[in-house]
Amino acid sequence: MFHAGVKKVQFALNGTLSTFLDHDGATVRDGCDLAGLVLVGIGMPAVWTAAAITFQVSKDGVTFRDVFNVDGTEFKLTTPLADQFIPLAPLDTYGWRYIRLRSGLKSATVAQGAARVVDLITRDLHGRG
Q: pTM to 2 decimals?
């Protein structure tokens, strides 16, 4: 048995990069701390301005790097639909403690029309309970 969890990230009004929300809904930092967790899915909000989702990772929560596939293309979720769950198999974030999401591509960000909250579904890194 393993523990699953939900972390909330928010795209601020007309924002393109996510910020992390703590349990009280207050913004605490640019990146979501995955300490010991693996990202396994994303819950989309009821409203989403059409845009792909791309990712950035960081070891220290300060310096973020864009995530690319082995073929050199940007890793993306192509224009996910609003109000749906997207399973990831899990996104290989091993070794990276912080993650943040981008609305759009690195070269073509898309501002969200209003604040949006996306659920990051996580599980224990080792699948233990």
A: 0.85
8 Å CB contact between 104 and 54:
yes
Neighbouring residues of 40: CB distance < 8 A, sequence distance ≥ 6: 4, 87, 88, 90, 91, 121, 122, 123
CB 93 within 8 A of CB 31: no
**CA-CA distances (angstroms) from residue 37 to 62, 86, 91, 94, 115?**
19, 17, 11, 9, 26
In this structure, are residues 10 and 27 in contact, taking their beta carbons and an 8 Å threshold? yes
pLDDT tens, 9-44? 888 877 899 988 876 666 667 888 888 888 888 999
**Which of 44, 46, 40 lies closest to 18 in space, CA to CA?**
44
For residue 129, give Cα distances in angstroms to 44, 64, 78, 123. Answer: 26, 30, 33, 9
- Residue 36: name the closest of 76, 81, 93 by CA: 93
Give residue 28's pLDDT.
Answer: 66
What is the pLDDT at residue 3? 58
